[in-house]
Every structure is written in C-alpha cells, then in structure tokens.
Amino acid sequence: MAVESVRLDHAAHKRPRGQAAWCLFDWANSPFPTIVGTFLFANYFARAVASDPDEGAGLWALAMGIAGVVTALASPILGAFADQGGARKPWLLAICTVMVAATAGLWFVAPSPDFVILGLVLVVIASAAFELSMVFYNAMLPDIAPQDRIGRISGWGWGLGYAGALAALLICLFVFVQAETPPFGLDKAAQEPIRATNLLVALWFVLFSIPFWRLVPDRKSSGKPARAIVRQGLAQLATTLKSWREHRNIMRYLLAFMLYSNGYNTLFAMGALYAGQTYGMGFSEIIIFAISLNVTAGLGAIVFAWIDDRIGSKPTVMIAVAALGLFGAGALAVDSKIWFWTLTLILSIFFGPAQAASRSLMAHMAPEELRTEMFGLYGLAGRITSFLGTLTVGWVTFATGSFRIGLATVLIFLFAGLWVLWGVRLEEKPAS
Q1: Which residues of the chain have pLDDT under 70?
Q2: Helices of type H across 219-350
Q3: Burial level of 207, CB count in 10 A (0-12/13-18/19+)?
C-alpha cells in the first residue's frame, strides 16, 4: 500500500477549528445511544410496545446482540476498505445517512405489539450504523490531534458528547415528556411525545454534524477504483490477522478492551432498566436520572482529558475501569434509592474517562498505515462479544430470579479486562 498517497499534511490539518469540529461530532451523535439506546426508547419499547416488560427487555437485549454481531463483522472490513481508499468521510456520510433514516423511522413504532418487529428491525439498523460510524470517526483522531494532545482532545469530545446528550434530554423532559400540552399537537394517548424524541435525535445529528463535514479535514482519495479498494482491503485485513504475532501487544489490548468494554457497556445499557424496575422510576424520573448521570460523566471526561495526557492513556483506563467495578458493586449491593443514586453518580464520573482514554490508547498504539483497519478491529473487539454481557445478565437473572444478581455479572468482565490490560506494553512514539 502506498501510504504516502493518503497521508495528511500534518501542519495544515492539526488546527484548532478542525479539532473543535471533530469534538462537536460527539455532541451531535451522543443523543442516539442515550435517548434511543438506553433511557427513553428502550423503556418505551419494553413497557408500551412489547406484550409485557420482561418480554420487551429480552427482545431488546436480543436486538442489541444482533446489532453487535453486524458491527463486529462489518467494522474491520469497512476499516480496511477505508485505509485502501484513503478518504474516510464518504464512508462516514453513507453510514450516518442510514442511521438518521432508521432513527427517524422509529416515530412509526406505535404502542402496540403489532409494531414489535418494525421497532426491532429499525433499532438494529440504527444501532449498527451508529457503531460503524464510530470506526471512521475515531480513526480520524490522530490525524487532527498532535501526539501529545490526543488524550485531551479525545476527552473533550466525550465531554461534549455527554453535554449534547444532556441538552437533548432536557428538551425531551420539558418539551415532550412533562409538557401538559405537547407541541405540534402530539397525542399523549398514542405516546407520540415519547416517539417524537426519535425525530429530535435524528434532526439533532443532522444540524450539529454540519461543522464536522465542513471543517474537519479528510485524507486524500487514493484514486483506486472501487473493485481494487475492496480486493486490496480484504487482502490487507487477511494479512493483518495472519500476522497477529507482529501486532501481539495490540491484540492483547483489544482482548482487554473486549472484556472491560463489555462490562461497562452492559452496565450502561441495562442500568436504566434496573433502576426503573428495582426502584419503580417513571419516564420523568428516568430522564432526570439520565440527566444527572450525563452531568457527572461529562465532567469526568473533561477532567480526565488532562490526566490522560499527563499520566498516559493506559493508567487512566485502569483507574477508570477499577472505579467502575468498585462503585458498580456498591450500587448493586444497596437497597436504598438514595444510596443507589449517590453511588451511581460517583460511578458515572468514570464512564467518560474509560471510553475516551480507551480511544486515545488505541490512537497511540495503531500503526499509521493501518489506522482505520485497527480502529475497525477496535470496533470488532468492542462488539464481537457484546451480546455476552446482556445474555449473561439475562441467563443469570432467569436462573436466580434476581435482576440484581444478573447485573452483577458485569463485574466479572470489568475486572477480567483490567487484569489483561495490566500486561499491555506501550512503545513511545515521537511527537507529531
């Protein structure tokens, strides 16, 4: 592969406005996993669309598992294609268009079991597209950030993401959910205010991603025909997988990431359902709970952004994952709603750092000529066994009759990932 043909002019491209626009993309896309994937639509589907909440929770977990499999299979392949083609934005734009369309389509999922299949199909498509978009977005980080500021800019992106989710949640709460007279003539009886939040998520992304498309630089196209890109991309991916011993340290990191990200993603995805069922939270309280978590998570991501660049990405990840395990265990052990709130808010401080520092650690470790492919494998590691977390929670919950015990299995993934990460070695790279 002619690496020089797709490299950026670093002096010209590592500029503040491009970095700011890159971070703003997190602001644009974060309402999707927060509103659709975790807090609002997930609970709406389980409680109002499915025949009963338990069946709805099970179907939702299955849908997330299917989306994870699609992402796991497609992300390294698409990443290899992008490395051969050079430019990443065309791939990203196509995937984001699918995500926006599927998200907007969730408006048509009415509160009736007749719409279960439609809801599941659309949420699988939207969720897979969201995860795939992150492969290309994350891979652009080292191109727009100097080596000594990768952790900071990654953390700022996550911080802005939490802020964007927070702002969107506030709109959902006051404009749609709690409004005595919903806007635009929305019918409360048909749950239209809740369904309209999906339209808000789609519109939010379209509007706030504009600076990204206009200001963030992209690599130049390699000029290769599509057939050659596909052929060479698959060949390069096969070569990378066959020569895994040459990338043994990265593969160890990906194994660690696969384990601990499974833990915190499952905790985040199932935590709202746990809070709702265990403490009887309604939609309004769930949104307030989500708002509180996003405030503390955003602050954690911003503060730890400097810590990442100061002490390194690996120590930052280890601190964050250890804290998630310890405070997660405490939150699951208590029976008091006040203590649950307190421990969960402390726990959420470490969500952002765990995610942001993991991204910056991959950016530090990935060879430049294989960067998008490596972020594809990073996406693969994050999703290939993502279904194991939710399935394990489900199996243990059914076996013990306790959602609390079922959710506690995420602690195994967190601490196992921490143990594997301990052995990852880092090589110094020259500042760029």
Answers
A1: 1-14, 79-86, 221-247, 368-387, 390, 427-432
A2: 226-242, 248-279, 283-311, 313-333, 337-348
A3: exposed
Residue 212 belongs to domain with CATH number: 1.20.1250.20
Asked, for residue 427, whether it belongs to a domain, the answer is no
Tell me the HSE value of 10 on the side-chain side, using a 13 A CA sphere.
10
| Angle of CA points 140, 141, 147, to nearest 5° | 130
Residue 64's nearest CA partner among 131, 16, 8, 149 is: 131
Burial class (CB in 10 A: 0-12, 13-18, 19+), 230: middle
44-57 per-residue burial string, b: 16 or more CB within 10 A, e: under 16: bbbbbbbeebeebb
Residue at 429 is within a domain: no
**Which uninterrupted H or E stretch holds 67?**
helix 53-85
pLDDT tens profile 97-117: 999 999 999 999 999 999 999
Task: Please report whether residue 2 resides in a domain.
Answer: no
Residue 39 lies in a domain: yes
Domain of 391 in residue numbering reads as: 10-422
238 alpha-carbon distance from chain centroid: 26
Report the number of distinct structural domains present in the chain: 1
Mean model confidence pLDDT for the chain: 81
Separation CA 417–CA 419 (nearest Å) = 5
What would the pLDDT profile of 312-335 be if each residue is shown by its tens digit?
889 999 999 999 999 989 988 888
- Cβ of 40: how many Cβ atoms within 10 Å? 28
